[in-house]
């Protein structure tokens, strides 16, 4: 069995963080276009995209995150349907998601480090 | 995908909202301007935003091309408003902005001038008064301008807090190195 520093969990966390920042970019784009006439809110289904990324060994995330227009939002007369409240909440959620991923990843690496330094004791 | 790209998106919004606030300020400053370079009263300006790059899928591009987007809107407005060639901040080349702007961000498509008829006030002593004693003043409503300014301020604030959030995320991902 090959010796490896990365674990299946840290691989998954990498994909989780990639997808979270991908989603963050869409939220930032939605916020940026809050006054752009005709702009439609964009997003993707995180759970579905993450599941797809986990099952895909090649690790290319592009195909797993199909960006689509978000349904069920009220359009203003200029055709724009960005909701400041929704985007604010999304941003807060993504921040916590990212923080969570980082913390678990740190924990993973400190496990690996303690395994490396085990003989020092 | 990196987090700095997300900050570029928010930065483009900060830039665009600042231009919007500048245009409002210029409108309010010139609310009583009866004489511009070509001798006519000042005309109200406002900005039009457009989306830059982004992850536009084929469907979205098609939908916007079919008149859902800015194209349809411009047709509706064209009767009263004309593009401003070399005005205040006009002359922003939208294709140039789109080419090197941040993907998924926003850009000022242009500053357009509102062609509504000037307000006429009777003031025969004014040097700009016509033969009938009326002076043409710009049709600027302080209320409209204030509402626009508040909108710009709120959007700016929202995008600024997004930048704050992104900074926290970048610094928290740097914490991985410290473990």
UniProtKB/TrEMBL annotation, chain B:
Domain Flagellar basal-body/hook protein C-terminal, residue spans: 132-175
Keywords, sorted A to Z: Bacterial flagellum, Cell projection, Cilium, Flagellum
Subcellular location: Bacterial flagellum basal body
Entry GO CC: bacterial-type flagellum basal body, rod
Domain Flagellar basal body rod protein N-terminal positions: 7-34
Swiss-Prot/TrEMBL GO biological process terms: bacterial-type flagellum-dependent swarming motility
Subunit structure: The basal body constitutes a major portion of the flagellar organelle and consists of four rings (L,P,S, and M) mounted on a central rod. The rod consists of about 26 subunits of FlgG in the distal portion, and FlgB, FlgC and FlgF are thought to build up the proximal portion of the rod with about 6 subunits each.
Entry similarity comment: Belongs to the flagella basal body rod proteins family.
NCBIfam families registered for this protein in UniProt: FlgC
Record-given protein name: Flagellar basal-body rod protein FlgC
The species this protein was found in: Edaphobacter acidisoli
